[in-house]
């Protein structure tokens, strides 16, 4: 068993320690001959090399390196070429045409191609698209699969119990489309360019720039390239470029590092609740023809998650010329057991008889994962700052019970564009009309109406769990539609709900069969992610001692469920 193996491993370490004065681990701990585990002073290795944590001015390896940046200027710079950012760009270009203005609009997108970082398979509410491009059908928007069937299930270990989906409920999908969202984003990029927007894929914004007096944002700098894993410059080093602008729109998605910096600098969360998060996994499957039902949408909750863990699944059958389906699984990062592995829960879920029946005979051809904002309207930060604003998932526009955010992201981008255009025209530094416009829009109305559904899963300190949340949705929300005079709290951050390993039971997961379930490495191989062996990690730790002194010692090195701790201890 797993426990026996762990005990044997620890016994072997103690035996080895008996032959040595002490055995020092990479985490800065030692095991004495008596089997005692003692913390050492800074023996943990230097992990973080990012210049925000290690000043290059004090590093002799950077002494003679030219750190001059080239500078370009635009009226508006948009960081992020997703639905929100590209909608903002398109709306700004439309306003240029409508009002006879000439504003240079630049979009910086880190993916090598527009849409490349957007995994296929989503159920899209077309409302935001229709408002931005009423003639979207004539323009050839890739919405090919209207929803034709809609089911919701509660899974027990062996059964799938159908639950009613009444009109008006958040998951009712009549009128929506199943899309390959990457194709939709690529199409939005084409529309933006046709309207005169400059879209630069393969360019990541790395730093926010400020005016000389520090009172306002003046633009961004792109990432430096040619840096070794140890933080030293390679012969191929090239300094990033500065883009100065009158207004900066941040559309970099959930938990983006520029947004985090701006939120902290301008205290944009003052008076708001902390953001809460989920992690979503998605696989693209080529199904057997006899199991393919184009336009079919299925959502569900339950097994293998316990009733105290928020999460659920979705299956969307596309009609894109081949029998494709997107299979997804979401886990809220407010779970309590550090032994829980969201990825392995997803793999186990596919072995449920109901799900396995749909996938048998098919082949997995794609995999991806992403973070999700789940805080809703309680966790929306102040949306504007001197010199710009936050849009889409950067701010947290996902309607969690509806399992949708693209329509809200597009609308928020359009509203931000109108406020930014107005601010530039009037010489204002901060696009203050954006927040008021959003609060008067259907985006805010929708988010406000479902504000209590997600936190209702924590009623009575979480003792009711999933059943309490479902009961609230059915008994209260359906009749009030969000008009109840109270608002529940999320009761703190996600990581505060994680319990020490000593208080939790380890979880055993079945070995993947490479037919329905797969290991993590083979899954990541399908993401087309490519990293040089000699480049810095894309995440930056605030504190290099945390992996040993917190993750390992308190939470037993939760590589299984480290998503919470990664969110807590990363800056970039």
Automatic annotation (TrEMBL):
Q: Which keywords describe this protein according to UniProt? A: Electron transport, FAD, Flavoprotein, Iron, Iron-sulfur, Metal-binding, Oxidoreductase, Transport, Ubiquinone
Q: What is this protein called?
A: Electron transfer flavoprotein-ubiquinone oxidoreductase
User: Biased composition, Polar residues: where in the chain?
Assistant: 40-51
Q: What function is annotated for this protein? A: Accepts electrons from ETF and reduces ubiquinone.
One GO cellular-component annotation of the UniProt record comes to: mitochondrial inner membrane
Gene3D superfamilies per UniProt: 3.30.70.20, 3.30.9.90, FAD/NAD(P)-binding domain (3.50.50.60)
Task: State the top-level EC class.
Answer: oxidoreductase
Catalytic reactions on record: a ubiquinone + reduced [electron-transfer flavoprotein] = a ubiquinol + oxidized [electron-transfer flavoprotein] + H(+)
Cofactor details (free text): Binds 1 [4Fe-4S] cluster.
Q: For this protein, what is any one GO molecular function term?
A: metal ion binding
Region called Disordered, residue ranges: 35-59
Q: Taxonomic lineage of this organism?
A: Eukaryota, Metazoa, Spiralia, Lophotrochozoa, Platyhelminthes
Annotated ETF-QO/FixC ubiquinone-binding domain ranges read 277-372
User: Which ranges carry the ETF-QO/FixX C-terminal domain?
Assistant: 515-560
């Amino acid at each position: 068993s797993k426990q026996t193996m762990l005990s044997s491993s620890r016994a072997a370490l103690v035996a080895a320690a008996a032959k040595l004065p002490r055995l020092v681990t990479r985490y800065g701990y030692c095991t004495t001959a008596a089997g005692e585990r003692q913390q050492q002073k800074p023996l943990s290795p230097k992990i973080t090399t990012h210049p925000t944590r290690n000043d290059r001015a004090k590093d002799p390896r950077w002494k003679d390196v030219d750190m001059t940046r080239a500078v370009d200027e635009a009226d508006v710079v948009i960081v992020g070429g997703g639905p929100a950012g590209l909608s903002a760009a398109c709306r700004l270009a439309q306003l240029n045409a409508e009002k006879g203005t000439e504003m240079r609009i630049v979009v910086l997108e880190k993916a090598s191609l527009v849409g490349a970082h957007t995994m296929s398979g989503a159920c899209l509410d077309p409302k935001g698209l229709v408002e931005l491009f009423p003639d979207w059908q004539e323009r050839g928007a890739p919405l090919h699969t209207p929803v034709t069937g809609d089911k919701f299930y509660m899974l027990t270990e062996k059964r799938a119990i159908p639950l009613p989906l009444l009109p008006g409920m958040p998951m009712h999908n009549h009128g929506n489309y199943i899309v390959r969202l990457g194709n939709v984003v690529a199409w939005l990029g084409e529309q933006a360019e046709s309207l005169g927007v400059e879209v630069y894929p393969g360019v990541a914004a790395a730093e926010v720039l400020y005016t000389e007096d520090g009172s306002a944002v003046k633009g961004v700098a792109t990432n430096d390239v040619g840096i070794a894993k140890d933080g030293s410059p390679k012969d191929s080093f090239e300094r990033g470029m500065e883009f100065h602008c009158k207004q900066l729109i941040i559309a970099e998605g959930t938990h983006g590092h520029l947004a985090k910096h701006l939120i902290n600098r301008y205290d944009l969360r003052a008076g708001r609740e902390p953001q809460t998060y989920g992690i979503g996994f998605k696989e693209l499957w080529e199904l057997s023809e006899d199991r393919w039902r184009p336009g079919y949408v299925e959502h569900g909750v339950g097994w293998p998650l316990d009733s105290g863990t928020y999460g659920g699944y979705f299956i969307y059958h596309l009609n894109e010329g081949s029998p494709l389906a997107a299979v997804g699984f979401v886990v809220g990062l407010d779970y309590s057991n550090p032994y829980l592995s969201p990825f392995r829960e997803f793999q186990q879920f596919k072995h449920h008889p109901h799900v396995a029946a749909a996938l048998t005979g098919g082949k997995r051809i794609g995999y991806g994962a992403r973070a999700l904002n789940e805080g809703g309207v309680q966790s929306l930060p102040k949306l504007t700052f001197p010199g710009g604003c936050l849009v889409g998932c950067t701010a947290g526009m996902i309607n969690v019970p509806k399992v949708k955010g693209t329509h809200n992201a597009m609308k928020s981008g359009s509203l931000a564009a109108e406020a930014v255009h107005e601010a530039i025209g009037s010489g204002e530094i901060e696009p203050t009309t954006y927040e008021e416009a959003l609060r008067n829009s259907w985006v805010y109305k929708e988010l406000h109406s479902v504000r209590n559904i997600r936190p209702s899963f924590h009623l009575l300190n979480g003792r009711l769990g999933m059943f309490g949340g479902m009961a609230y949705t059915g008994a209260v929300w359906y009749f009030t539609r969000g008009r109840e005079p109270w608002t529940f709290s999320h009761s703190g951050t996600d990581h505060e709900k994680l319990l020490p390993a000593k208080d939790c039971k380890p979880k055993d997961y079945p070995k993947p069969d490479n037919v329905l379930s797969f290991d993590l490495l083979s899954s990541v191989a399908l993401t087309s992610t490519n990293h040089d062996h000699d480049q810095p990690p894309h995440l930056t730790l605030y504190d290099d001692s945390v992996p040993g002194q917190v993750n390992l010692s308190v939470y037993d090195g939760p590589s299984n469920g480290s998503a919470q701790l990664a969110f807590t201890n990363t800056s970039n």
